[in-house]
Design brief:
The complex is a heterodimer of chains A (230) and B (412). By secondary structure, chain A is of the alpha/beta class. Helix content of chain A is 36%, strand content 27%. In chain A, helix 3 packs across helix 4. Chain B is an alpha+beta fold. In chain B, helix 2 packs antiparallel against helix 12 and helix 14 runs antiparallel to helix 16.
Chain lengths: 230, 412
């Protein structure tokens, strides 16, 4: 079974006023362990698609199955809980709680998952070390660079042991060196933990690392290539 | 970790939080200090009234209370006095003769109450002997001495050593007059008491009007401390069970004699609570406004938390905790300062002499010793938390309304 199966997804914003057709019949399957980039011009519907795959927004038409669960069948409360246990997120910015340290930010999601304290701490430290900021675990986001903040976000997303991680332009605010580092880390995590990553990007360098590139334009998938051996 | 987040969020906008802390602190200080002042005034009035005017407990013949005629004396007064003295908490008992009279000087007159007392017994019951501002208190060695209030002395234009002529009805119902020499002038905090009461030796009054010197119309009882009143009342009711049943005597405590005093105390308390509540209710709007701003500023952050899977109950608690912390910091600050101020004025008193003239008239003296019940401190804290919880509802609901997908897109 695919981890994600999106069937004939339509998304219309502002249905009552000036309708915007952001997605026009998207079919997509994501398998476990994939490292997939969603690419396409600005306004093509990348964010809309990721939000729907991540259960942050509901499609106007069509179904999303995550390991067989149709998101439509969940109440809003169940959906929140579902996200907590199954989906990891890395956003473009404002990923972290500014008043918590890197370690606390990573632990926080585990606390929400009711993981016991000792285990939480161990896991947070392990992942922060894995993303290369072991020496900054007690720093608050304000004391970290943009790239370091994004690495904490990746560590946090991994900590919750989700079925897959959604990252919407995670490198958009980073310089090329940090972009490379972050991608390296994500790719390494993908290899090491076999975590599934789906990210949207404009960035050619990011695309070059992807194992699969899904191209979207005008709310439709117009290309889907897999690169073996990357 | 919700506690940590809420607590640390407080300090993100330090100026804004400081404004709220200060407003709440000032509000609390205002209401606590005003309660301390009002309670202090009330206590003082009550204590002064007990010490100088009413004493703790009085016993009368019920008929005397109805029409004030001296013929309605306390039956078997000597025996009663002995019984009363056996109660352990009693500090003093005084049997008084009491009647209304006309007092006159060479050029003016006034309606008064004349009280015939045994000075030694009276000293233990009333504090009046300590409030003599000119001359001295009554003594049995002198002939026909009297002490009168300063206010009456002014009214009748009398001085120390002058003669006070009183006209009254004697035991046979005839009008009779007597002259007393003013040996002392007293001044209580209550001008109305001072202008109306004249004290003489009971044996002199007895000689003048013909009732035996060992009889009387009023037994005034003073207790060692006045919070023993309920027990003493119980003991007296037990001792005089039969007399009370046969309506020969009535026993009344100070709050029954002057119900106004008692109601003044509870009224002041209500007042303080209402005042506190109004202040806090007004502050609630400032709290709501601050928290709404905080929620709006953190739209993306809250959206992010929702996206990660923080449920609504936790989001609500996070905002509510922050609101409660915001209020409690101010309240604790305010209470600490209040306790300090109250303790200071409870020990040293607060001097009101500049406005004391008017206060004297309604029975207050010019130095007020503040008092605040622990209850009031506790209640202010409880009210603050209550107000904070109520104030957090609207900001928390605003946060809950956010849609994670939209909130994250928002540009701020
Ligand atoms: N909340 C919204 N209300 C109305 N229209 C919206 C909303 N969100 C997105 N849109 C529209 O939907 C379309 C797809 O937007 P989306 O953000 O998914 O594009 P994108 O591919 O992520 O673009 P970018 O590369 O700029 O991030 C756009 O035309 C956008 O204007
Ligand atoms: Mg986008």
């Amino acid at each position: 079974m695919s981890i994600i199966e999106a069937k004939n997804i339509y998304k219309v914003y502002n249905e009552t006023k000036v309708p915007v057709n952001a997605l026009n019949g998207v079919d997509l399957k994501i398998e476990e362990g994939e490292f997939t980039a969603i690419v396409g011009p600005s306004g093509s519907g990348k964010t809309t698609l990721l939000n729907i795959l991540g259960g942050l927004d509901l499609p106007s038409k069509g179904d999303i199955f995550i390991e067989g669960t149709n998101l439509k069948d969940l109440s809003s409360r169940q959906l929140i809980n579902f996200r907590l246990h199954n989906i990891g997120f890395v956003f473009q910015s404002y990923n972290l709680i500014p008043v918590l340290t890197a370690k606390e930010n990573t632990e926080f999601i585990l606390e929400l998952q009711k993981v016991p304290k000792k285990e939480r701490m161990q896991k947070a430290l392990e992942l922060l070390e894995a993303v290369g900021i072991a020496d900054k675990v007690d720093h608050k986001p304000g004391q970290l660079s943009g790239g370091q903040q994004q690495r904490v976000a990746v560590a946090r997303a991994l900590a919750s042991q989700p079925r897959f991680i959604i990252a919407d332009e995670p490198t958009a605010n980073l310089d090329s060196r940090s972009t490379n580092e972050l991608l390296e880390i994500m790719a390494e995590m993908n290899r090491k933990y076999h975590s599934t990553f789906i990210f949207a990007t404009h960035d050619q360098r990011v695309m070059d690392k992807a194992h699969r590139i899904v191209t979207i334009d005008d709310g439709k998938i117009i290309g889907d290539e897999t690169f073996k051996g990357r | 970790m919700l506690f940590a987040i809420a607590w640390r969020n407080l300090w993100r906008n330090k100026l804004r939080s400081a404004i709220i802390f200060t407003s709440i602190a000032v509000g609390i200080i205002g209401s606590v200090v005003s309660d301390g002042f009002m309670s202090g005034m009330t206590d003082q009035r009550v204590n002064a009234a007990i010490a100088n005017e009413v004493s703790d407990i009085q016993i009368h013949n019920p008929a005397f209370l109805l029409n004030g005629e001296m013929q309605y004396q306390i039956p078997d007064a000597g025996q009663s006095l002995k019984k009363i003295e056996s109660i352990p908490d009693i500090k003093g008992v005084s049997l008084r003769m009491k009647t209304s009279a006309m007092a006159a000087s060479a050029n003016s007159g006034a309606g008064i109450t004349i009280l015939g007392v045994n000075p030694a017994a009276e000293r233990k019951v009333s504090n009046l002997h300590a409030l003599i501002i000119e001359g001295k208190y009554l003594s049995v060695k002198e002939k026909n001495p009297t002490v009168i209030g300063q206010k009456l002395a002014h009214k009748l234009n009398l001085e120390l050593g002058d003669r006070l002529i009183v006209t009254l009805t004697d035991s046979s119902g005839t009008i009779t007059s007597g002259a007393f020499r003013i040996v002392g002038i007293f001044k209580t905090a209550n001008d109305r008491f001072d202008v109306a009461n004249v004290f003489v030796n009971k044996k002199d009054l007895s000689n003048l009007i013909g009732y035996p010197a060992n009889t009387g119309d009023e037994i005034a009882i003073r207790l060692k401390t006045n919070n023993q009143t309920p027990e003493a009342m119980k003991a007296l009711h037990h001792i005089f069970q039969n007399e009370i049943q046969n309506k020969e005597i009535v026993v009344r405590s100070w709050d029954q004699i002057q119900p106004l005093l008692k109601s003044m105390i509870s009224m002041m308390d209500y007042f303080s609570y209402i005042f506190l509540f109004i202040i806090l209710a007004a502050l609630a709007f400032a709290i709501i406004n601050t928290m709404l701003m905080a929620v709006m500023e953190r739209t993306r952050e809250i959206g992010m938390l929702m996206a990660l899977g923080m449920n609504k109950r936790k989001i609500f608690s996070m905002i509510m905790l922050e609101t409660i912390f915001l209020s409690i910091v101010g309240a604790v600050l305010g209470l600490l300062i209040s306790i300090f101020v109250i303790n200071h004025y409870a020990t040293y008193g607060f001097d009101l002499s500049s406005v004391a003239k008017g206060l004297n008239y309604i029975g207050y003296s010019s130095r007020i010793f503040f008092r605040v019940n622990t209850n009031f401190y506790v209640m202010s804290m409880v009210l603050v938390v209550l107000i904070a919880v109520l104030s957090s509802i609207s900001p928390a609901l605003k946060a809950l309304k956010l849609q994670p997908a939209k909130a994250i897109r928002e540009d701020i």
